Amino acid sequence: MTWVNVALQGILLGGLYALFATGLALVFGVMRMVNLAHGDLGILAAFVCLFIVQSLSLGVIWAGAITIVIMFVVGYLLQRGLLNYTLGSDDTRPIVVTFGLSIIIQNALIMWWSADSQGLDAGAIENASITISKQLAIGWFPLLVFVLSIVVIALLQLFLNRTKMGRAFRATSDDRDAAELMGINNRHIYGLAMAVALAIVALAGVLLAVRSTFDPTQGSFRLIFAFEAVIMGGMGSIWGTLLGGIVLGVAQTLGAQAFGAGWGLFVGHVVFLTVLALRPSGFFAKTVTA
Amino acid sequence: MSSAPSEHGSKRPLRSGTTVLELKDVDVFYGDFQALFKVSFKVEEGQTFACIGANGGGKSTLLRTIAGAMRPRSGEVLFQGQPVDTVAAHDRVKMGIALVPEGRRVFPSLSVLENLQIGSYGGRKGDWNQESVLELFPLLKPLLKRGAGSLSGGEQQALAIGRALMSNPELLLLDEVSLGLAPVVIKRIYEAMVHLVGTGTTIVLVEQDVQHVLTVADYVACFLEGRISLEGKPSELTSEAITAAYFGM
After folding, report:
1. Is A181 in Cβ contact with B110 (below 8 Å)?
2. Second label for A166, Cα 20 to 30 Å away, from A26, A49, A237, B236?
């Protein structure tokens, strides 16, 4: 039963990884851009939320909602004001620029908050759990995170498949030049894609901040986990990203259970490399379909 | 595809002599390579203006320049009397310029219906809608839910033209619509084009297939190495003159 419990915790952890990775998958799917600052932007969102909680004395839910809106706007402005200018024939430009952005965010956060670990207090839900048996319990908060990840991905799917703007996202993903010739403003679409991606990663950042402690340098780890989830799921596939996150989460928790706490991340990376070797295009290779 | 009207006499009322498109001394470059040299012409409302010529003549570059996918280095493109050189491609669609690009360029991961819906993204009002497009291309009706990437070349071409019509263009640019298609499919595409001509849509058509072009064109310009080497009404052009202009003899 212990192993079942561990696997279950891994699945729930995978939901958080998927949330971090969904925005990365969306951005890659729509504009073929690799955003190396994605994890740091999630951590930035956690600090923004912490700042709102401390300065406005708001609860985490309200502060989180405000943070998501702020990051949505930041995403749009960041894409329109900076990242759109890096897109073109040279794929290395956005990589270099977002790498620089990652360093700037990390150092700005260290200057602002110091390198100390921080945390967000969400109250009793953090420790509440459903006890199924003596060795099997599900925490309410991890369950909430997992459910939220499914809801977010389902809403994103509905957005992409059922709305005019979603069709424009997918058309741009297929052929951005042809989309422009159909009256779609690619730069606006890219701005919206980044805005949605940062809103989702802001949610992930806030949930991470409640679930565990966080510090300014954690973005890089989050980025690696997000990459692994996206690549295992299939670059650009949003439901694949959820599966990739779950596989990674389960691998980490089972690895930690089998070999000791320090081995969890290692086993996660090994499973990622194994999947990459056996299915280089991931579970569901696609552009930006849900 | 629909049966063609028997003659062109069913055109909508036109504003006589209204210039829809005008190019003045347009030069276009790819880096240091000049693709168009001082190209100038006018297209009147309701006219079908055909550009013929061998590969590399600059025909597709011309259409991409009119559509806004490329910018002229010098010269001017006027649409309905307004300079559009600084207008982005997506805004030109909203103004009423639609391009059916070479190679169809349908969106493969979208369904046929979604491709048509994308055509109306700009929100221009007009006679063309999903029903009228499907009337023009009834072969698309049973395919609406199919992925556009799974269609045959002829079906994709019909979809590409229908998608452009969904934007209710004042000016329709057609780039090599017969390229790579079977003769029977080309015949059907041209039947639909005759119908389009009958509706009074202003068309600039690029083709290598001179025989088909002459069945629909009001005016023909032959492009050779980025310059207009011959122009005139089809009735004024002899096959010898076209051949000489086409091959630069």
Report:
1. no
2. A49
**Amino acid letter for position B216:** V
Looking only at the bridges linking them, the beta strands covering B33-44 and B19-30 are: antiparallel
Q: What local confidence, expressed as pLDDT, does residue B9 receive?
A: 33
Mutation target among B107, B130, B171 for the A interface, most CBs of A within 10 A: B107
Distance from C-alpha of A48 to C-alpha of A216, rounded to nearest angstrom: 12
Question: Look-up: residue for tokens 């806030």?
Answer: A206
Check residue A235 and give left, alpha or beta (phi > 0: left; psi -120 to 50: alpha).
beta
Enter the tokens of residue A290.
């849900």
Residue-wise pLDDT tens digits, A42-88: 999 999 999 999 999 899 999 999 999 999 999 999 999 999 999 98
What is the ipTM for the molecules in this complex? Answer: 0.86
Distance (Å) of CA A85 to CA A94, A176, B207: 9, 15, 35
**How would you list the strands of the sheet with B19-30, edge to edge?**
B33-44, B19-30, B74-79, B82-83
Assign residue A92 a region: left if phi > 0, alpha if psi is -120 to 50, beta otherwise?
alpha
What is the spatial distance between Cα B143 and Cα B162, in angstroms, rounded to a whole number?
Answer: 13
HSE-up (13 A, CA, CB side) for residue A177: 14
DSSP string, A110-176: HHHH-S--B----GGGGT-EEEEETTEEEEHHHHHHHHHHHHHHHHHHHHHHHSHHHHHHHHHHH-H
Cβ <8 Å between B107 and A289: no
**Mean of the per-residue pLDDT values of chain A:** 93
d(C-alpha A82, C-alpha A92), whole Å = 15
A289: chain B residues, CB-CB within 8 Å: 109
- Whether residue A287 contacts residue A173, with contact meaning beta carbons closer than 8 Å, is answered with yes
State which H helix or E strand residue B235 sits in: none
Instruction: Provide the shortest C-alpha distance from residue A284 to chain B (in Å).
Output: 14
d(CA B7, CA A205): 66
